[in-house]
Specification:
heterotrimer; A mainly alpha; B alpha/beta; C alpha/beta; A: mainly alpha; MetI-like fold; 2 strands; B: alpha/beta; eight-stranded mixed β-sheet; four-stranded antiparallel β-sheet; about 25% strand
Amino acid sequence: MEEEKKQISESLPETPVSQEELHGENLTDRAKVLSPGMMVMKRFFRSKLSMIGLITLIALFLFAFIGPFFSVWSGADFDGMVIDYENAKNLVVSQKLEYVVNGETFYAFSITETPMTKNVKGDITWSHWLGTDEHGWDIFTRLMLGGRISLTIGFVVVILETVLGVVLGGLAGYFGGWVDQLVMRIVDILSCIPTLPIMLILSATLTSLEILDIRRLYYLMVVLTLFGWAGTARLVRGQILSLREQEFMLAAKCSGLSTYRKIFKHLIPNVMPQLIVSMTLGLGGIILTEATLGYLGLGAPLGTATWGAMINYATQEEYLSMYWNFWVPPGICITLAILAFNFVGDGLRDAFDPKMKR
Amino acid sequence: MIDEKEILLEVKNLKKYFVVDTTFFGKPTKYLKAVDDVSFRLEKGKTLGIVGESGCGKTTMGRTVLRLYDVTDGEVWFKGQEVSKIPEREFNKLRPNMQMIFQDPYASLSPRMTVGEIIGEAALEHKLVDKANYREYVLGVMKMCGLQPHYFDRYPHEFSGGQRQRICIARALALKPELVICDEPVSALDVSIQAQIINMLKELQKQLGLTYVFISHDLSVVKHISDEVGVMYLGSMVEYGSKERIFANTLHPYTKALFSAVPVPNPHVKMNRVILKGDIPSPVNPPQGCKFHTRCEHCMEVCKTVAPQYKEVESGHFCACHLYD
Amino acid sequence: MADKNKSHYITAKELRRIAKENINATKAFEKRKKRKNVESEYVTQMKDPANIVEFEDLHTYFYTDAGVVKAVNGVSFSIPAGSTVGVVGESGCGKSVTSLSLMQLVQGPTGQIVSGSIRFRTKAFRRDEKGNKIPVYEMTEENGELVVKKDAKGKPVHKKNELGGNLYETDEKVYDIAKMPTEAMRSIRGREISMIFQEPMTSLNPVFTIGNQLNEVAFLHIEGISKQDAKARSIEMLKLVGIADPEGVYKKYPHELSGGMRQRVMIAMSLLCNPRLIIADEPTTALDVTIQAQILDLLRDIKGKINGSIMLITHDLGVVAEMADFVVVMYAGKIIEMGTAEDIFDNPLHPYTIGLQKSKPTVDGEVESLYCIPGFVPNPIDMPDYCYFRDRCEKCKKECAGEYPRLVKVSDTHSVSCYLYKEGNAND
């Protein structure tokens, strides 16, 4: 058999043989390629820092959103009050007395020791992993609940910011001319308004209007959004200006596509990677702003736990020096969250940028 | 005679100036004359080749004809209709009739759309096909351009340059155009792929009766595909005529130099080259008189001061040079 | 169809396997590059003393996420002293990677020279026990005795070489670049092999003047050269590459020059240290035809003036035909045909070479339809062991299903890798 085959091939050496006769496969299609999603994943996971960031983020999210379900304690008075009575020791109740002498007011306090009702400023024990605060609330539980609110604020604000920034930046970049001028001048004005004094004024206004409940947080989000979209708009405008000159946009113009399609089908998807990166990095920034405001006693209403509001304890001498368990844990959480968001953001930037080879 | 044939595209004294410098109040003070007074007419089913070096304005000319850039001055007649001044909205309805194939197959495909979307999108928008028949229609166009059906759902980055250029051609042809402006469609491709694309373009022209404006810096390619040839230098047409005339009887010194500069794949040919001295002048400050006089070996006194007239030297053979006054 | 789509992409499992293999493979190579003081390991002998570079069975792989890309897969050829060797091929055929391997500029850890050798004849510095270069000093006669001349500060005065730099004791040696550690490679790169890149726009630094950049190269590679000497040398080189106003260009910034001028400056830079080999990687691809003609003319002219060889990498057969003495045609990482320019252009043998030459339209010829090679250049991942050109070849035979054809010598200078030809028989 073998010899026969050899003979045939030798006797007909010059006859061209078609490809199908030899093999079914085609060399061009032989090699497999990476799908676009896989390519991004691969590059993202190559960096150890972004892995660490991602794991930290997942841990923080589980901690904040799932954790409270496993806690027996209440984080605040108004949600189904579970207060620790067993470990109660002593409570100093002060009674205030007021005297008026010669038009001047004097105060006096009568101090009584009564049997304890709440475990206030309790130590770290097996049942309270981080002790309790001055209201008797479990700090560990509050830390989890605070994470919920801080992270939610971050996400809501970033999404609102991005929507506003993409629409306005997209319009400015695509149409140019007076639209561009208008939007970009607004952006310029926004970036030279100092945020912090405005926030202080706003907080004072809200307090004087006696808005002290959860609505304060909504106002906080709105204001953060109004001040935050400018950066996104600038990014989107810049990207669109450079994409607009690309040949695929000329091709789209050449095909006579509608403006709507050109912006939302051709331009925005190409800005998406940069947007995701800026959103991730922005999240950290917003959590930090929330913390700053919380530290200054603005933002969250009384009793509501956010990481920022919890750090506010550090403004009082007594807590700063003696009760580190009140303000160090939220500080660590904020640092971790921001670091993690930045690591993930950097990782995503490298992953999305095909020019970055390493 | 000429009137009997249908003129599909006629360009009269087309000008495109880019403003490079303005006063503080936005009044332009300095122009880059990318296209400066170019005229030609093109019959249906024919191919016009435009040759020139980088910066000669050939790409700008192609894009200006399709109104990807605003026309500074001049007229563009398409199927007997003046189209350079009609409103954008009306011109958009004409766009499917005049398509473009771009030079860089990597930049001209949106990286986040699938091949099917890229090809079929505009046809759907212009209602050349309804949603029900969309897929078959696109697959039909893809087959015509030598693309396999299972490429439909893939992304451009998975393809090589040649296949990408086929996708670009399919995108243009999906709109059933009459005029296709090919802007250096093969210069970014490998030699063996170039031949495939050129043959395919020729084949498609025969099948669909297309009219091409073929812009290229490669003389041999232009010679192969064109019926008429125009040579551009610094924004102006310096020589124009039928392919046979231009290649048999080259008039302009620039065209001659361009011909002799092409390397020949034969080691025995001892080149007797006209090597041009110097570089192409900046189109912002083109030389006085004849724009080519700084590099011309036949430069005369008159060339330095008076710009030559673009006129018919033989019948159907135009040239702008003082040697033929 | 759905099935085909599915198999088109790499699965997560395969991806993990590839990543693991890549890390294991590249680790060893990276370690090898960092060795120290192992000169004995990479000193070899030339097979033919007339050559200055010999590639032998060179394999350069890229360990990518999608699999191992065998960019250069068993390439052997040599560059004789004083000649121009043209390497032709389409994009992705490995012609640039071959030259980068020679410069040890393949980007690690992804890209690695896996096996084979690149022998390069070099003027190696002689070293003392501490590994320092041994200088040659100016001698004077003092009291009838030869002693080292000293300058005012009592330091010995170096003898100068022809470039104005310090002279050191050197040996004519042959190094195997594929086995050299990165550190040792530095004294060869730029000094004895220099490179001209395709893109003259990006290979010059926009914030320094031309003179600055030329001088920097001089200071880097010519030890002990004085400022005046460096400037004089730079201007001399600018003059050599046909720049009419070298002093003027010396003071200019890259953006003030046109593409052709910048490429001339790049050539001047590559000539600065009198290299033995200039690698020109697509030197005219980014230029216009009229400027290309000028640059090619210049390169030919310069080769006559300097005592060196040129390795010209290009995809343009026309350029090769004009410039090269020897031609190497590559396809998908392998050499498919090589010989003198006459061999390749008068009597091309491999169907790919023939196809390439036929598929280019010419200015003088006239054909109705161009000849074209069907199909596409294959993606060089996971290549099978049969002729890579097989499914684009119109002369494909039954034998082609077998293993990859060896390179057969059809004449003294001409070799081809195809089953159509047998040893010593060019007209088969």
